[in-house]
Structure formats: structure tokens, C-alpha cells
Batch of 3 targets.
Target 1
Amino acid sequence: PLDKPVAAANVGYIDGQFVLNPTNEQMEDSSLNLTVAGTKDAVLMIEGAADFLPEDIMIDAVTFGHVAIKTICEAMEEFGKLVGKTKNYSTLLQPVEGLQEEVNEALGQKVEELWDHEGKKSELSSNMSKLSKQAWAMFEEKYPNDRNQVMKCYKTLLSKKMYQKAKETGIRCDGRKLDEVRTIDIETTLLPKVHGSALFTRGETQAIATATLGDSGMKQKIDKLDGTQQKRFYLQYTFPPSCVGETGRVGMPGRREVGHGNLAERALSTILPSEKDFPYTIRVESLITESNGSSSMASVCGGCLALMDAGVPVKSPVAGIAMGMLLDDTHSVSDDDAVIVSDILGTEDGLGTMDFKVAGDRTGITTFQLDIKCEGLTIETMSRALQQAKVGRMHILDKMDEVLAGPREELPPTIPRISAFQIPADSIGKVIGPGGKQIRAVIEDFELINMDVQEDGRIQVSSLNTEKLKKAEEFVKELIKSAGGGGRGGDRGGRGGGRGPKPAYVGPPAEEGMVYKGKITGIHQFGVFVEILPGPEDGSSPGLEGLCHVSELHVERVRNCEGFMNSMGVEEIDVKYIGKNAKGQLQLSRKAVLEDKRSGNKPKKVEPKEEMSQDEVDVIAQAIEGIQNL
């Protein structure tokens, strides 16, 4: 029995024009990704990210999306009339007649005294808990089976009295003015051994943010339906029970933590330099140590400060603020009497009707999220909230500038330096070596932190010693030129000698669907190179080599390819040839072999056969010729 239909729309902004429900291809060129949901009368929810768009464009975008929502809702209303189904109200719990008035009369004065006290969170929570128990004790005898109804009326009274105080006096339950931001305290380089760190405190909400820089091998890997995605920047938000004075289980992040982390991540991702200009993988962690409202926006502020403390050349500092709204009637659409409050408390979030998070720099917005608990938010009220949020955001940015106005000019000495270069893709196996021996030797001998080899031949090496970094790059380049390859790095160097282009495989082709026992020729993060058919003994041509991608190594997900292969401790593995990719490279699968074994299928297995030398072939040919002459 819905009161009215609800619809949603997606809005993009391309070349100064709004686009309704843009395609994935269009979104690549869009500076706005806005999702709007609502009824034909008002907006219920918005969420998305923008590329420093000003408030007036954001309002126009919401208005543009809401026009489409009206059209959809009106169509659904017509559809409902055509269907002609009668709404079923029989299962709805009806309010007890006269109960709200009784609660108002019995507890109205006590609630007013509660809001007039203007204490801290711990004191306010304690007083609210005591009053809640008194409320039930007063009505338990008369309404023994209606506890939920009594407490709902009590909560309605709390909301109404909170609104009345703010509307009549301009003062909130903690003594602040409507647009006043809580006291802000900031400290950077809190943890000297960490690449970048910041302690951001706003009132009774506090976050410790750290920034860690690494090479391309440290990107976050996410398995998706269309393959594996690698994220260069990711933010992890942690909200332990202790930050709200509780104890509880600490384990995997819940939906709330993931959502808050994604919101803060979107706010910061827009200000980061490109990977070409700054070839680091960037990880920010925000640990909430105390919370009384808007910890996700504290994570934005703390995360930005930690990035600048680490020397990341951000485009501009960003800050976030959470806005709230108080209404006289929480079951109505917002109107001109709605009270907009800045930097909301947890209490105002729980008893208010809006939680509107906005983050951005001095020129525009980078991310936003709105959810409400009333019938809807008008465009006019949203415009008021955005303008008030801008004032608050400027105030927070001023406080951040007082401590750290921009990125540090030099990277801290604890951050590894990175060098990137390109080698031919067909030389990857030589750099990796059998079982990864060569790459481990280079890392060890040149005292590298890591060496990441991409499938297209891009190599990124990282080290705290810039001289060792240069020598490692020179050695690798010399290694792929050497005739014999091998050898270890450092002062021992590699074997010299040059050679021409790599010869092609000239043996019999592999049969698709066949299983081969192949020799491991290289291991790195995206998979394992396996030689399934050997070349001639004289080395005149190479063996037939293919790639077993990390997703094809096992029936279960392999998170660390090198660690997985090292744990197996083998030099040969059984793989199935499953065809060639778009580049003509052989694709192999160990997972297919394991799945065949599980299902009881026994595919034909092809053991590699040794090729005869040319001398052996000549001897046999002479023997055959001699027999034919008999």
C-alpha cells in the first residue's frame, strides 16, 4: 500500500549539457555521475561524484533528473489506475488513538529540559536513556502490549521539541548556532615512520588518517564479472565499536564501513594526479577513534591532510561536511519552515530528517550523498542546504590551511623511489626466470623493495636507494640483450654477448583441448608462463610457450600468484591448451585440468616428446635410403 510511486534517474554532464541516463561510453566523458530518486513531488535520495562542479550546476542537475522522475511517476500512477487493484491496508499497524497527545502532555516539559541542558555526548546519551526508561514506566500499566507505539510517540516528541528549540532560538541541542561547525583540531606527521599521517578532530568526532605509497604491484585487485579490476587508489574506513564507547566483534568491514569508505574515496580520487605524473599506488586508511556524527566527512578531511603530508601532489585540498534538517512534521515534505543545520551530531542525525554529506574544494563539489526520513526534499530546500554547506566547507578548509596549506615539496625519506621502463613483451620470461628465480635475484642483489612486470613488458622497480634503482634498470636492459641470459645482478652482473631477433617456434602445433605437462619458465603476478612443447636440443629455436593466467591456476581464487606457485614447489605443471587470445598468444588452464579430474573426465594427456637432433635425423635417413637400395 504505497502512498505514491517512486522512480530514479541517472544524470551526466558532458560539454556543458545534462544527459539523462547516459551510457557507459558517455559516462567516460562526463564530469558528473548523479543518481536521483524521488516521488513526483520531491527528492528522496541523491548520490554520486562530480569533477569540481559548483553548487548551482548541481541544483540544475537534480532538477533535470527530477523532471524525468515526475514523468515516470505519473506513468506509474496511470498504470496503477489501469490495473485497478485495491490497496491492502489490513496489515498496517494503526497508531493508538490519543497516545501521542498523552505522551506530549506527560513528557513535554522533561524533553524541553533535556534539550536545554546542552551537554556533551556522554552526558546527553545518559540523560536520554534515563528519560526513555521513565517514558515506558509511565505508560506500561495502561498500554502493556504497545511498547513500540509508546516509544515511537516518545521519539516523535523528541524530534518536535528539538525542532522547536532550533526554530525559536536559533540554538541547537549542544549550544551551537544553526550554521556553526564544531571546534576543529588538526595535527599532521602524527606517526613519523608512516609515509603520511594526520589526526583530524571535529568536536567529539576524531579520525586518524594514514597514507601509504607503493608501486604498481600493490594495486588493489577486485574480481568482477568482466574480469579483474586493479585500483590504483583505495581508501579503507574502519569504525571499531570502541569509537562509540562499546565493545564488540571486530572483523571484516560491514556494509556501513564499505559505504562510508567509498564515499570518502570518491571525494579524494578527483584531486589525485595521474599515474603518468605520479606513478605510485596510493592507499589511505581512516581509523575512527571517536564518533559523534559525520565520521565519513572527517575521513575526507583527514585523508586529504595525510596525502599532502606524504607529498602527494594533489590538485587542491578538499573537505567534507554533513548537513541535517529538522522538521515540525517528520511525515511531510520539506517546506520554508525547515531548519537546516551544519555539521550534524549523531543525535541530530537520528532524530532529524536529513543526512546530506557534501565534499569538495573551494571551487566545487567532488562527491555528495543524501538520504532523508521525511516525505521528500524540495529543490528549494536542497539549494539552501548546499549553500549553507559551502560556507561550512570553506571554514573547514581555512582550518586545514592553517596547519598544512598544500602538499609537502619533497617526498618523505621513508617513501621508496620508483623507476619505470619498457622491455619487449617476448623478453618477460627471461626477466622472470624459471620459477621466478631471476626476478628474485635482481630484487635481492640490488636491494629493491619490489619489481613489478606487466604483461605488455612494462617494468616498475622501487627502492629507497636511487643508485641501486638505476643499476637495476641497466642490468635488466642488458639481461634481455645477452645471449645466454641468466646470471645474478648486483656486483656479479650478467653474462655478455648479443644476439639478433628471437627465433620462432618451428615444431608441431599444440592441439586445443589437450593436456600437456609443461615446464614453468616464468612466474609473476598476472600468471605463469609454461613451455608445453620443447624446442630442439641444439637450441636453434625455442619451445612452444603459453600463459596460464592467474585466474586459470586453480578452481579457487589465487590472491598471490608467486606465493601460490612457490608453495607448490614444482617445476612442471599439467595445463590444458584452451586456444589463443586476441594477440595470438597461447592460453593455458590448470583450472580446467582440475575441474576435469573433479568431474571424472579423463582428457587425453599429451606428454612432451623429445625432438631428435639433425644428426640423428640424418643417420636414420641414410639407413632408410640404404634399405631402399637393397
Note: The radius of gyration is 33 Å.
Target 2
Amino acid sequence: GESSASRPSGCVPSPPSSAAPPLLVEGRTASRAALRQGAMAERVRLSLPSGQRTSHRLAWGDLQLGSAGNLGSLEWSVVVLDELTIDLEVSVQLSGQAAAGGAAGGEGGADVPGLVLLQEVARGRTFRGTFDPAEDARLGGGDGWSAENAGVAGSQVEAVIFDFNNAFSWWTDKEVELVCLRVRPGGPPASMVPPLRLLQPLAALPRSICSAPGAFECGVAPGLATLPPRGAWKASLSDREEVLRFASSLDEWLAAAEARRPAEGSAAAVAGGALLQEVLERVVALRGLCKEASAKVAEVLARTAVGQNGSSLLSLTAELLAAQDDRTSGAVIDCLSGDPIFDDLARRELSDIVARDTEDGEKLAVGVAQAVEKGVLPADLVPPTYEQIDVMGKTADQVAEEIIAALPKQGGCVLILVGLSGTGKGTTVDKMKQKLPNAATWSNGNCFRALTLLAATYCAQQGHEGFDAACLTPENLAAWADMLEFVSFDGAFDIRIRGLGLDVRVSEVANTLLKEPRVSKNIPAVAKETQGEVVKFAGEAVRKMGEAGTVVLLEGREQTLNFIPSPYRFCLTMSDTTVIGARRAAQRIAAAAAPRAAAGEDASAAVRAALAEVAGTGR
């Protein structure tokens, strides 16, 4: 299975490309409303073959906006479809003059590279970030920014480079959607006028009924602005849920009113006497009931966040689209419910998912059969039993809690999670990592890299010019696998490579030896022949981690995970498989709609426009 652990990687810029107009040219889109507000959106879909990497170069200048374009800011969002993971690194390419002169105005600039790192390499399913040259301290912005250097930071930026890396995955191709939103002021660059002072609220008006001589100190009415907007709740909520919402807000009102109670010992408190005491006691009792209702509201939200068809009871907003999570997908499905174009897109997405899962399963089966033939994996394995969990109508939090309830209450264990793509395996693992402080994920990537390093070293010692796949004999693979040890160093587990003149830990050479071209470009060839060796090594490694008190989370395919010993096995299912296709379609649509909504377009209208774009209808 794949994990969300980080792994460093280099940045390989692609050849420069010319700036494109902002209206539907080679994947770039921007609504006219967004252009009027000084924002330009771009959506790019990339295919990452297994074991490969690619980069996307986003030119900073824009011919239509002129020099004002260099003063803009950038917001980006990256979504990996089907809940898979990739490695991503984001950097800024500086113009020749800026790189030579220093990104921050230093003398000589000899130590300033032509690339400035914005986001270190990280592995995940979704990524978001922002970049503003005028405010970035590395480019001379930030607190020292002034009118004199306002143009310097923007003029030295030539492009933003997104480096996508799928080299750690040997079998699975990835589909990635990159959405960028560049916000620029309309017309010429804004002048350096200090912001206006914030308006201060006026004092509250007293109640007229308190003006009589000798009356109690009534103070002011509590603010009612804390009431949640009704638009955030669907009209289909039951009467009971509506009452719970009201009780939650009433508790806030009572708290504000209670803060205005007459001071103890004051004339008003003395005059109030028993009546005031009775009122305060009833306020305390009523607030207690309201607090119980507030707790029930959270329970109701968790139960109704996702409907039985994968839909959401939350209103579609720009903020929800920007979240790009399971709530976003549910809200998009709810918005497009009954739309024949969306239904057709969902069916096509489901067909693609099933076809890709079948293809990946066949590739893994070949590797497993090869390992059994070599005697690396047992031939008489009885397929283990998995506890089936139907995720239909459940949130990722609910699924995670259901699994956690079946795990041991103390100590570590090895948890194995399988299921069809789109059922939420990756999201569930992320939720469990948040809820279990002793949880960790396992990735086979370092094992494949270590074996490839040994293979490349062997070829060099044998006098071969470069890498020779003929060296990948069963005898050599068995010998190299024995050179890997999974041991604990100073309380932390690590892979030790000891053999062929090497004696290093993976953590020590992750950014050096394991990143050399002789390793990275030959990993797919080695991975194809060492599937069994790595599965066997992983089984022993996760066993040690579990015995040490770690809850090890493995998610992936049954073909290989069946060989990992563990009694804690779960398979995520969907009683209505059409929802899987709808979820993936919703992910793609949400990624395309988010920049439109961020630029001011109505969220529902942005979703429907994105549907036409993604489905290719042009309506």
C-alpha cells in the first residue's frame, strides 16, 4: 500500500512555455466575472504513469495584463483522483537578472540559486498553497517591503514550477488535477496608501423600560449575531434537529445575558432579592439543557453530513469547494442529483476505476505468482478473512471510529485495509492517524530503493557499463534481500543496508545515495522482479513495529496484503457501487469549480459550469 509519508525529491523544470490567454486555451480557464475582479484561473489535468515524474511550468507574466500581472499572488490546489498519493515539490524560477543579483537584494548573489523552494517535497492526496512575491521575505518582500522595491519582487519571478513525482509507485498510474488562481489588482499597480482605520462599534442603546427611577440595571440586549445562518442548513432537517439548533444558539444568548447580571451587593441586586435569585437559578438550569443539546447537534451533523447516496446536507459554498474533502464531494453530488450529464459522467468514471483496478490486480498477481515459484512466498496460503464494512451513507470519521472500536485498546497491532478504489481507504487511514497517537503508515518504497541500490552497486563491481537487468537472478535477489535489516536505532526503526561494501541506514542516505540516477531510473525494473521479497520483508518489519506498541496502518490490494500476517483485516465496500463513480466525478468537478467560486461566481453555478467542462459537453 501507499502511505502519506514524505520523501525528498528534486525539481525538474519542464521547457518554458508561452503565456496563454485566460479564456479556455490548453486547459486554462477563467470566467469573465473573475477577470473583472483581477483574478485568473487555470486548471490542468496531468497523467502520471507508474514510476515516472513530470513537471508543470506556470509562467508568471501575462501578456493581457501587462506589468500589473507581475504584482499578483498565486493560490494553488492539487488533487490526486481516486484517493491515491503522489510526491509534490513547488518552486519559483527567477529571471536571469534576479538570480544573478540575489533574490533578497544581497551583494553579489553568488549563493542565490535560480530556483527558490516554496514547498518542500511531500506526499499526499491533496495540496494547497499560496505565493505572493511582494510579501515573500526570500524575494525581498515581507516587513521590509516598500514602494521603492515593490516592482523588484514581482519582476524577478519568471515562473512557478510544480514537480509531480510518481516514482515510488511501480504499478499504479495517477491522475492529477492542478488548479491555480492568480489574483491581481485591476488596472495599474495599487499605490502604497496605508489602510483605513477600522470602524469602531457604537455603544449599545439602553432599553427605554429601564429609565424609571429605582429600576434594575438592565444593561443591553445580548448580541444575536451568533445565530448560525439558516442557509447553512437544508430545509429537509427534521423538526427535532431544528429544535437542537435553536437550543445551541439559545445557550450563547443566555451566556451573554448572564454576563450582564447585576453585580453582587449592588443596589439592583439587593432590590431584586428572591426574584433575581430565582431567575438566575432558572438561567443556570436552562443553560444546562442547552449544553446537552449542543452535544447532540454535533452528533446530528456527523450522522447527516453524508446521505445514503453519498450526498451532503451541507449547502454548497466557495469555502466548502476549497476544502476538497469528502464533505465537498457529497455537496457536489447533492447539487447535481438527477442531472443526466452528471449521471453519465459518474458511470464512465466507475467503469474506468473498475478497469484500472482489474489491470493493477493482474499485474500484482503476476508478481505474486513469480514470488511463489521462486519459493519466496508460500504456495499454500489460505486467503484470510476480511471484516466487511459498508461505507454507504457514512462519513470517513464514522468509518474510522468503527474500525478503531475493533482494535485492541492498548498496545500496538497491524491493521490491513483493502477495498475498491473510491471507497475511501486513503481518507480512512488519514482519519485514523489523527485519532490514534501511536499510529504509523508503512511504505514499500524504501525497500525497493534499497534493493535497487544493491543491484546498481553489484553491476558496478562486476564491471558492467551502467545497469544490467540480467543481474536480477533469483540467487542475487535472495542474497540482496538478506542484506536488509529492519532494526531499532535510538528508539526509532530504520532499514539497514549491509553488504557489497555498504553499511548505511536508509534515513542517512535517503537524500544522497537513494536519489542518484543509477537508483531512481532503475527502480521499476527491480520492483517488477522483487515483489515477493519486499512483501516478505514488510511482513516482518510491521510485526516488529506492532510488537513495539505501534498501530501500523497498511492499505492497498489483497493480492499482496494477504501475505502480511494480522488478525485485524477490513475491506471497505459500497452497497451501491454507482456512488464510487459519482464520488470521483464530484472530485474532478469540485477541483474545476473551486477557482470559479473563489473568484466570486455563485458556487452552484460554478459547479454546473465545471460539470460541462469536465464532461466535455460545452453546455
Note: The chain has 19 helices and 16 strands.
Target 3
Amino acid sequence: PPPSRSVPFSHPPPCPETGTGTGKMSDAPPPSSARYFSTIPDGYKPVVEYAWEGKQSLKALAGLAQDWAKALKVCGADLEKRVQQHPLPDSEVSSTLKVAVDSVKQCVQTMGLNMQEVNQVMESDREAFIEMRHKQSKTKREQIAAYEHSKKDLDRAKSAMNSNKKSYDSSCRKAEKAIIIRNDAKASGDPKLQAKIPKFEVNAKNAIMNAKKAEINYANSVSEVRKLQVSHRTTTYKVLNDLQAVEHKRIVASKATLGLIVKKHLELCETMRMNFEQALKKIQAVNPNTDLDTFMAKAKQDSKNAKPLALQEYAHHGIALLDTEGIKPTFVAPDSKKPPPPGAPGGPAGAGGPPKPPGAIGSKPPPPKPMGANPAGSPGPRGPPAFAGAVPPPPKPPNVQNEPSSPGIPPPLPAGQNSDPTLQAKIPGPPPALGGRRSSVSGPQKTEKKADGSQPVVAKAEFEFAAEEATDLGFQPGDYIIVTDRSDPEWWGGHHPGRPNETGEFPVNYVKIVQDPAGGMLKQARALYDYSEKEEGDLKFSKDDIINVLDDSDAGWWEGMLGDETGRFPSNYTQLINVTTGR
């Protein structure tokens, strides 16, 4: 997409600061978007397991508080035995929370006094703690149900798509067979077959109609699968980040509950003050960010080989005969933008980074077809191609035979060659972009200067760009643009050839420079013969005209600019020259 012209997106924290009881402690939310669960590749399974182990952690702490209160009520006779019955799950083995819990257990083991007041406070806070645990369990079940529902919808859509694909393939084969039978009957001189031609026509027409309907159904099902794939990914990100918010709240609440218990013991048990102060320090060191980072590091290591999302591709029948009968693909991918990378809820991680061109996820968009090229496999004014997708061979120069016998006009060189290969232009990379954004520049804008007073900077569009604002310059793949302003590193100014009054802005990453005299990118050819326009897109010129060569990737047909006109021309009608000497 084109670079953003607005303030970069800022990720919200995954959850607000919450806690239970009166001993709530302050904790900062994760400060970095890299700490979101949605950045874990294929992280749904480990996150769900961690979330349910978080429930066990809450249950363990609630049971610890309950047994602790009972032990306090009976003077702690069997407290040491009971506190050992509630270990935290394995996921907390290296957490700061476990360090705090172990420290508290050691303090409790030294208690021997009956503290009724502390028992009452603990019972009240434990009830709130349990209520919070039930609410979190309900939230977790709802999030998992949303994920499973989204996954079932995607699986059903894939099943329907596979069924439509089979029907599509079968219809294409039947249509191909019916067309061949009809064509053979027309070409045959057998009177019996000639009499059946009307019947064969009807059969072929019906088969073609069925194939078209099957193709439409298949294309619609592929679109539905792609839409549900993106929707399922979005649902997964939301589920993961919602579960992270629950776990953040759980750790903060666990920390607050332990802090409350310890503070009350310090108030009522002065003799245990030193021990519980040490426990309080350990509890205050509990950091949900550290615990979640530890879990995420392990989960990312376990899932480092997870595959990225790949949208369902559309598969055309690929039969040239069916193309001629009108059975052509109707599927158009609606998702022209690359899906956002995993990140915070409501926006991609790292928004505001370098722009990327539009296209299919994880793949470079296909290059534009050459100007004036015929569709693959279809005959045109230049004659049928040698193979599917080939560019027709260039015409021979006038009055030139395969083996010339007169010294009049020299025979054309093989496509793509020159009489003096030492004069081939050496094209370096484009010059570095100028710094600064257009929005921050005041006063008149810098205008691109032509190297020799006549040759402009020319760029070729690699992707379609639709003008979104009145000052934008829209174009199609393959269009050439005269660049007049490169002062902004991400948005340039320019106009189409022959229309200098219709200037506009366009994104840099949608085009590539093909002519830059100041940067050494200038290639010219002299016309050896007259060439008139054979079809739309051709460049007309006369003998001895000097043509700027913009694209010589095709050995037979080049693209160039003469004055304000651009188009394709046969390379063997021209000869490259030295731009300095003109020879």
C-alpha cells in the first residue's frame, strides 16, 4: 500500500489495571507490542493451555488462602502440611509469582498463633477471588467457542470449495469433449455426422453453459474461503489478546491477594514482622510482564517452524479450447492488500513502517504485461504466438530478404543485438531518495532538472494506483510517468507524457526509474527505417529519428519514447547509439 500520511497507529494496552481486595498493588501493562500473545506463530494451542493452567493457578491460590485461614483459626497446627498440597502448575516453575508464593509459604510455616481477625479478612477476600476466577473461566470458554465456531465455518467453506472444484473440473472435461465432437462433425464430410451437427451444437452449448456455471460456483467458493481465512485469522488474534488480558488480570489479582494476606499478618503479628517483610519484598517483585515474557519465549521457541497464513489460490482450467468458447475465469481476489502482521488488537504490529507494494500475501505481484501484447493463446493482428504467452516476432525491415543480395539496406540484426556492443548503456541503481516528507516542506517544491536540458526522468508503473485525492496521479501497470519532483522520499510528483499540465503525486514504491540522465540511465537508438503504427500501443517513427529506449527486456520488441509519445517498436528497425557522440 502507499505510505501512510497520518500519525502512526499506537497500540492500546492489552487490559486495564485491575485487582481484588484492599491490598491491590500497581502494575504497568506491557509497554511493547512485541509482548502480545498474537505475535506467537501458531500460538493458539499453547496460549489456551497456558490460560487453563492460569485457572489452575487461581484455584491453587484460592485453596491456599482457604487452608491458610483454617490453619490460622486453629493456631496453625497443621498449616505446614496443608500449604505444601497446593503447588503451582509447571508453567509457573520459573515465574516471579512462584518465588513470591514460596517465600510466603516459608513465612506461614513459622506461624503458631490464632489470628481470628486475619482469618475473617482472608475469607472475605477469598470469596471475591473465587468470583473473579469463575468470571475468567466463563470468558475463556466464550473466547475458545468463538475460535472453534470460526474454524468450523472455515472448514465447511473449504469442503464446499473442494466439491465445487470437482464439479468445475468435471464440467470442463465434458464441455471439451462436446466441443471436440461438434468440431469434428463440422470438419467431416460424412453425411450422417453432418445431419447430427444441430444436435452436437446443442450438446456443446449446454456443456459450455454448465462449465460456466460450475466455474462461477467454484470462484465464489474460493472467494468465500479466502474471506473466512482472513476472518478466522482476525478472530484468532482477538481470542489470543483477550486471553492475554485475562491472564494479566489474573497475575495482578494473585499478587494483590498475597499482598493483602501478608500486610494483615504484619499488622497483627509484630513478632513475625521481619519474616513477612521479606515475603512482601518477594511479592512486590512479582512482575506479570516478566512471567508472560518467560512463557512467550518458550512458546515461540516451540513454534518457530509454524507456517504463515497462505490464502487459497484460484486454479483455472488451463484449456485453450475452452477459452475460445468463453469459459474464462471470473474470480478476482478481493484482498488486494497484504494482511497485517500479527500485532495488537485493532491494528498491525509496527504500524507506520516502510510501505509494501500491494499483492497476494507473502508473494510479489505479477509484473504487468507488455504494452499491446495479446492474451496468451489468442491470435491477433501480429499472427499466432509460438507458445502460450509469447510476444509476436517483430516484422522484418522493408525490402530485406533472409539472404540479401544487394548492398542497399543491410539485413536486420538478430533481435536484441547491436552492431557495437561496447556502446551498451551501463545502468546503475537509482540515486538515493531525498530526505524529508512533503507535508513538512514549506515554500516551492524542488523540480527534477533534465540532464541535458531536453531528456526528462522517466518512471514505469509496476502496479495500478487509483487516485485517492485531487492531487494524486493515477496510472495503470505499464504506464510511463515523467517525474518532475523527487524531493519527498515516499511521494513523487509527475505527469503522463504529453500532458505536462496534469501533474499529481504518486507513491514511490509503485514505480521504477527507467530513465535518469543525471544518474547515467539513458539509452538511445537511431531509426534505420520508417515504421508506421500497426496496432494500438506501437510507436511510429521515421528514419534517422532518435528514440529513447525505456525497456529492452524483450529481444524483439522494445519500448521507447519519441517526443511526447511512448510505445513499442521492433528492435531490428533501430540501432543503439552512443548518447554522447550520437553515433
Note: Strands lie at 457-461, 480-485, 491-495, 504-507, 511-515, 524-527, 546-551, 557-562, 565-570, 574-577.
